[in-house]
Design brief:
By secondary structure, this protein is mainly alpha-helical. The protein has one domain. It is about 55% helix and about 0% strand. The protein has four helices and no strands. Helix 2 runs parallel beside helix 4. The longest helix has 20 residues. The chain starts with a helix and ends in an 11-residue tail after the last helix.
Length: about 100
């Protein structure tokens, strides 16, 4: 790889990390007047592995938004958790017997 390609890849990786960490649950974006809804639940489910790792080192972070709309937030969160981690098996190669 040439240096220009490495620089672009580094900038892209930093931007992706910043994007994903800027929308983590428990960051004070939501409150009782503006709770997190279905699509926030979907996003928080997708970034749950990152949230889990960060919550180990930072007590103010959590993997679940406490100010949410209830059932719809839960539905989006669990759908994305199941589809995100369940789809990993689609990339596994099947063993031939």
């Amino acid at each position: 790889m040439n240096k220009r390609k490495i620089n672009r890849l580094t900038v892209f990786a930093v931007l992706i990390v910043l994007l994903m960490t800027s929308c983590l649950p428990g960051g004070g974006h939501y409150d009782g007047n503006t709770p997190a809804g279905f699509f926030s639940g979907v996003w928080h489910g997708w970034v749950a592995p990152i949230s889990l790792v960060l919550s180990i080192f930072n007590d103010s972070r959590s993997i679940y938004e406490t100010y949410n709309t209830g059932w719809w937030y839960d539905f989006g969160f669990y759908i994305s958790i199941i589809s995100g981690f369940g789809s990993i098996q689609l990339f596994r190669k099947k063993k031939g017997n």
